[in-house]
Amino acid sequence: MFQIADGISLCKVNHSERKYFDELVPLKTGTSYNSYIVRGTEKTALIDASYPQTASEFFRQIEGLERLDYIVANHGEQDHSGLLPEIMRRYPNAKLLTNAKCRGLILDAMSLDESRVETVDESSSYDLGGKTLKFYMAPWVHWPDTMFTFVPETRVLFTCDFLGAHSTLDACFAPEDESTLAAAKTYYAEIMMPYRAHCAKYIKLVREIDPLVICPSHGSAYDNPEFILRAYEAWTADSCKKLAAIPYVSMYGNSVKMAEYLSEKLSERGVSTVMVDVVNGDLGEYLKAIVDAGAIVYASSVVLAFPHPAMANIVYLTNLLKPKAKYFAVIGSLGWGGMLVKRITDMLATSKPELIGDVVAKGKPTAEDFARLSALAQTIAERLA
Ligand SMILES: Cc1cc2nc3c(=O)[nH]c(=O)nc-3n(C[C@H](O)[C@H](O)[C@H](O)COP(=O)(O)O)c2cc1C
Ligand SMILES: [Fe+2]
Ligand SMILES: [Fe+2]
After folding, report:
1. Do 326 and 294 form a contact (C-beta atoms < 8 A)?
2. 309 lines ligand 1 (CB under 6 A)
3. Is the pTM of this model over 0.85?
4. Which domain holds residue 163?
5. Burial class (CB within 10 angstroms; exposed 0-12, middle 13-18, buried 19+) of 178
6. What is the number of domains present in the chain?
7. Angle ∠(31,13,284) on CA atoms, nearest 5
8. Could you read off the pLDDT of 30-59 as tens digits, one per residue?
9. What's the pLDDT tens digit per position in 173-208?
10. Statement to judge: residues 230 and 333 lie in one domain
């Protein structure tokens, strides 16, 4: 347990062995599930219940907690609400406080005594004795049920998934360094980026609330909110960097040669690039790049008339995550035929970026293909200028 502020402590349960989140995104160092204990002179509250798979560590950390009056569920997902039934069994006097949407999701997901659930909204206020619980509804970061809890007396804001990071650092407060930013940025890309406009709105809300400390339920807390708020303001802004993300897959080296050439030509024109091998590389590097990139260039060979399946996976995921890049291009190589450009374009149908060029070589790229790649670099540089 870590001390966050007077009467507020952090119960940080690290899950270092966890390899994937949502069976989708690889975790470099696992993640943490954070809960917070708020003690008033009269009553005690737990903010966010933890994850069943790491239950023993959670209960070990809260061992000395004799009394629990309230459990706040800011979000119904299992990693923050999965332990509710067991916590409510062990603390039979505790009431569950949550908003109407979250209440529904929790009751769909687990069996609870409904008479112990109290529905809260922005007008609700729970006095713990010298500490008050207030609530701000913040739907869609990243489920429709999400809310923040605030303790005005200490100005501590509990944002659950919002502003979190998959990190297992043994630290109460996140150091203000590159590794903190990298973990927060990858997390933003995977979980929050599809809701970029909502994130921008709630960053403004957080600024209005003006907390001294921000306490998310993954990673470490922020005792200088400015650090994470500024980062989010840059990530959620409409403006892009002069940066092209180039995910690639190549069985025999043709498509990757084209990607490398394009990358060189882009650099010569002042556009930086992030090339990521989508089979052997780090998906997190790609996700971080598309937070800022102005263009994405998919480089793939053709397999059974379609883009290589590893590329299809990336294109599909990118379409879901809705990065702010307005432009995309397709390059790659085929042997005899297939619809590389059309298939990739079709897969981007809901995020609708604009196709600004394609170069598909037959076998190894020819001088003419390289000339077309130079022209594509020029087009990209002009669009990102
Ligand atoms: C399993 C497999 C399936 C393929 N299917 C197609 C295809 O349907 N259409 C086509 O034009 N080329 C097909 N090819 C050929 C590759 O697209 C071609 O060799 C290309 O130049 C490889 O580019 P790379 O070196 O970037 O992997 C296939 C190759 C393999 C290994
Ligand atoms: Fe969540
Ligand atoms: Fe979560």
Report:
1. yes
2. no
3. yes
4. 2-236
5. exposed
6. 2
7. 5
8. 999 999 999 999 999 999 999 999 999 999
9. 999 999 999 999 999 999 999 999 999 999 999 999
10. no
Flag whether 211 is in a domain: yes
Mean pLDDT of 251-264: 98
Q: Is residue 172 in a domain?
A: yes
Residue identified by tokens 């089979």 is 279
Q: Which ligand is nearest to the CA of 219?
A: 3
Q: Quick check: 150 and 158 in contact, CB under 8 A?
A: yes
Per-residue pLDDT, averaged over 269-283, amounts to 97
Regarding whether 226 and 257 lie in a shared domain, the answer is no
259 and 174 in one domain?
no
Cα-to-centroid distance, 362 and ligand 1 (Å)? 9
Q: Determine which residue's CA is closest to atom 20 belonging to ligand 1.
A: 334
Which residues are paired to 125 by β-bridges? 134
Mean pLDDT on 279-294: 96
Provide the residues around ligand 2 (an ion) whose CB is within 5 A: 77, 161
Last residue of some domain: 172, 202, 236?
Answer: 236
Q: What are phi and psi of 351, to 5 degrees?
A: -90, -20
Pocket test for ligand 1, best of 280, 334, 341, 359 (most atoms within 8 A of CB): 334
For residue 194, the 8-state DSSP code is G
159 ligand 1 Cβ < 6 A: no
pLDDT value at residue 352: 93
Of 236, 264, 283, which residue constitutes the final position of a domain? Answer: 236
385 located within any domain:
no
Q: What is the pLDDT at residue 26?
A: 87
Q: Mean pLDDT over residues 301-306, rounded?
A: 97
Residue 270 sits in a domain whose CATH number is 3.40.50.360
Closest CA to 112 of 137, 134, 87, 130: 87
Residue identified by tokens 């403006």 is 239
Q: What percent of the chain has pLDDT over 90?
A: 97
Decide if 25 is inside a domain.
Answer: yes
